[in-house]
What does this fold into?
Amino acid sequence: MDGKTPPRFIADAMLGKLARWLRIFGFDVEYSKRSSDEDLLKRTLSEGRILLTRDRDLHRKAFPHSLLLASMELEEQLGEVIEAFGLSSYDPPTRCPICNTILKEVKREDLTSQVPKSSLERYDDFYICPGCGKVYWHGSHWERIVSRARRAGFPNLDPDSTDNEE
Ligand SMILES: [Zn+2]
It folds into this structure.
């Protein structure tokens, strides 16, 4: 790792899906369905974020603190963000896809009703969101995350192995 902190983002109201997926990959992304353009621009500047948008006009107003996405398709949009900022690693699950709060690891013993018994028995790693209380674990959705990351062009899932350049 070169110690570079990844950019923090704010997504416009049309890009909820992209925001959730970037959070799943561990990036800090603010998103609200009800943000006005004015709110978005204000927060972009005051919080030092990069505005993700498909709106040319909004992009122009926020430039250079913005990225104009060309595609309407999620994986291509993820690819555009990855390429524009040279993102080379990701580290899920670190953020709640619902509320962007950093997840905390939680012991199996401390979980009861939130997780189905079969999952408690099968998996080892559980995470809780201190923001909204939702519990996450490496279940069957995990493969979906990995393959989506791969299709979007993320070089590697394991941040420790990104040093192996070819
Ligand atoms: Zn949450």
Remarks:
- Residues 96, 98-99, 101, 129, 131-132, 134 surround zinc ion (CB under 6 Å).
